[in-house]
Amino acid sequence: MSHIRVLRHYIHTPFLDDLGWHYFVPELLPPRLENRGVLFYALTTSSSQVIMVAAVLPDGCSELASFFTESITRKYELATEDITTDVVGLSAFAEVQRWSSRGRHIVLACSAVSYLLYGDAERLSDWEEILRDRSRIQVEAKRLRLIAETTRLLPGDRHHVHGAFGLMFANPVEGHERMIKEKTVPWSGVVLPVPYHQATFEVVLDPDGHPTRIAGTFAGVDYDAFKSALEARFGGPGSSTPTHVIHKVGGDFVSLRKHPSGVRLVVIDHETDTALRSRAKQRAKEKWEAETEGL
């Protein structure tokens, strides 16, 4: 069991290769296993150390079970352990046997499709840790991709939003002199990359032409996917319903709402929006006082 003879020429199988598994043809094969359609796979480390070898039998191994049991027990002088199949992961097998020595194991699992496995427990544990590290790296890479995606639309960082869709809160909108102030008006916007290219924009300007609210409606954009992207960037939303989330970002607000055609994203600069509301309230008060003067 300390030496497993396999050909070092593996047949390329992309999905298995990504996990460290390779299909191979053995140099030696017991006559009882010839012409039975058995497939052989080796799990290796990046330095080509063998972690596990698996023989996959395309049918049940009942007629071979006694051959395996007698041969392995005699060859390696090991006692056979019968493993209970009444546990998660083994219930599909009719019979499972194991032989163990110095951290290495041989396992025979018989079912409609059967397996004979040779494995090194220590190397297998190291491989599992590598997979966990790879998974953590993939999760972090996905998070960074989502952050980059939202930053293309909403410049800034986790704690600040400086604008949206090419408009910056600190800068007057080009051509604002010809635009209505303090009311929602269409804005031609910019052409954004796929999948945000099918978009319409609106903006509310303060008297000096600075954006107070910037809104974009995006056709064909998945609400749940974009919601996840915002959470990767800003963390959990301040308020949430199945169709609407609001993030408070450094005092400003980012609102995402599910739209019949996709999503609607609204970004609000808190300072200028508060001033806008205050002016509107003051105008309403002055109008009321003028209309009721003399009563």
Please give the structural blueprint:
Elements: H1 14-19, E1 21-24, E2 39-44, E3 50-57, H2 62-76, E4 81-82, E5 95-101, E6 104-110, E7 114-120, H3 121-153, E8 156-157, E9 160-161, E10 163-164, E11 167-168, E12 185-187, E13 199-205, E14 211-219, H4 223-234, E15 239-241, E16 244-249, E17 252-259, E18 262-268, H5 270-292
Antiparallel strand pairs: 1-2, 2-3, 3-7, 4-5, 5-6, 6-7, 8-9, 10-11, 12-13, 13-14, 14-18, 15-16, 16-17, 17-18
Helix pairs in contact: 3-4
Q: Outline of this structure?
A:
The chain has 295 residues and is α+β, with helices and mostly antiparallel strands.
Walk me through what this model shows.
There is one protein chain. The protein is of the alpha+beta class and about 300 residues long. The chain has five helices and 18 strands. The protein has helices at about 15-20, 60-75, 120-155, 225-235, 270-290, and strands at about 20-25, 40-45, 50-55, 80, 95-100, 105-110, 115-120, 155, 160, 165, 165-170, 185, 200-205, 210-220, 240, 245-250, 250-260, 260-270. The protein has a seven-stranded antiparallel β-sheet with strand order 1-2-3-7-6-5-4. The chain is rod-shaped, with a radius of gyration of 33 Å.
